[in-house]
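Hallway conversation turned thread

IA: we were arguing at lunch whether anyone had actually written out Beta-lactamase end to end. Turns out nobody had. So, for the record, here is the sequence (664 residues) and right after it the structure tokens. Reply here if something looks off.
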Amino acid sequence: MGNSKKLSLAIAGLILGASLVACDDGRGGAESAAKQFASALSTLDVGSVAFDGKDSGVAKQQVQDVFKALEPDKPTVAAGELTLDGDTATVPLDYTWKIGTGEWKYTVSAEFTKSGDNWLAVWNPAALVPGLADNEILSKGTQSPQRADILGADDAKLVTYRPVVNVGIDRLLLGSADAAASATKLAELVGVDPAAYAQQVAASGAEAFVRAITLRDEGRTVTDAQITAIPGARAIPEAQPLAPSRTFARAVLGTVGEATAEQIEASGGVLTAGDVTGIGGLQQQYDAQLRGTDAVVIRAQLADLTREQIQAAGTDPRRVVFEMAPTPGTPLKTTVDPNLQSLAESTLAGVGPASAIVALRPSTGAVLAAASGPGSNGYNTAMLGQYAPGSTFKIVDSLAMLRNGLTPDSKVECTPTLTVDGRTFKNAEGYPETSLGSVALRDAFAHSCNTAFIAARDTVTQAQLEAAAVAMGVAVEAPALGAAAFLGSVPGEAAGTEHAASMIGQGKVLLSPLAAAIMAGSVGKGSPVSPQLVLNPDAGAAAADTSGGTTAEGASPSSTVTPEAPAKASGQPITAAEAAALSDMMRAVVTSGHAGFLTTVPGAPVGAKTGTAEFGKENPPKTHAWIVAVHGDLAVAVFVEDGGLGATTSGPLLKQFLTAAAAG
């Protein structure tokens, strides 16, 4: 390369270097400072930002004070196109806040000044919120919309706002009266703990209203006159979302109340202390759908403004910087028939142990009633209970036997006892001797001959039992139900005494009362019943746990299959012809078996199957009492946990329910 060429390159390099220096007018440093400021604001921690004439620690505290009311929310802050003017730079800051389901967006301007080689942020509260002054902070107010109703069949209002009164002591009304004496009198009047309530009143502020109890206005026995006769006591009217009665479908519907600590923690900031939310059941599962979204208003106000000053001012001294209208909740539509649900509950009212009545409409799968008795202590026995179904499971056995070529008229051997691997199985006490020996399958089913069904174990495999259960819509998932439920567990493999026990609905075979009603309903329908409880589940609602959640000891949820498409090759859905044969056998239980008491139920002929399942270690063992029935387009299961015999315990409850249902 010639010298001239080298010289020209060197000159070019000098010129290029000079232009780079000339371009570095501080823009890069200012942009860097702006990005750092935006990043710090996104965390609401500006402790690392260098300010012009303001201590970073003081600025950090002020930013936290300004936005404290919005905790735990934080904004996303982005720096826009910077404008440079000598040693001063301005940059737009774009804020985006997620407020509930909405967004609060605004743009403010931040200023930077050059000090030596550094760019410093100029402190200005208006760079946090438009127009914010140095002595102002934000406040946030929310107001929940009215909670949506839960509806039943024909849009009957199951849960809706009903009038209540909050009964308590108003400290302002007490005057010179003795607070402890008034509190004790009121507590005794409304039936709460006098000592605890008196302590609560004593610990409250001078202007507080201390609630003792909330009473439904309708039908209350404590009158306003009795309340106001006690110094300082008063009843404040209000409305709350309530079912028709305190017990009505409570385990299914859930309740509404102040969010628990666990719910607040699990909500990820959606719920805060004092928020009203669904507790248990459908109210909790579909809380977002029923609650809607709150109205939100964010205001700028003087940091030391008091509630009294706000109330005393003619016009509100705060200014609104953001407002979001509420979104009302969407009513939840269910299939529950209020009359049948109430009837089921009143039928179980006197039953001591855990109990349940489930009624559904086979033609549609609509769950009309799912009642758990008082002995269930608030647990949803009807839908979540996991129990050995006893001889009601002979409906499933019989389907497997029909599929192996038998008919209701086929002969089976009913012996007094049968021994399998050293374990002796026998028939129920009082089994009629006239139905022993070689009898028709129909007769063995009608009188519930255990030995005849156990004797079929060599021709009915455990896998065939599982397939027959699946064919009837049980031991499956229930995607259309829309609520947590256990639809049964039937192991696909079992040998020896366990397989024999499966033939009489024991061993590891488990059903819920809902599953038992589905099993009977599939006979009535002539195809598998796919149960439905919730008609309009919000896509955003919590997914229902339809596998039954935690399983009973020794049980496992069955594989994910639906009645319409069983996963097992042999588990083809029950056919109309198979269902007709089973209907014939279930009718025989009423006409010639031990459910003859159902012959007097008015309307369509009733088909039924009783069941008694042993449980526990006692001798003689305790038993679950079951009965299932089909009555026209109604399938019902009745269950009593510690109930003796199905025919004598659950049978009369079923008769009472069906007779009243037919009359209603």
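OS: looked through it. The first strand starts at residue 51 and ends at 52.
IA: good, adding that to the notes. The chain has a mean pLDDT of 88.
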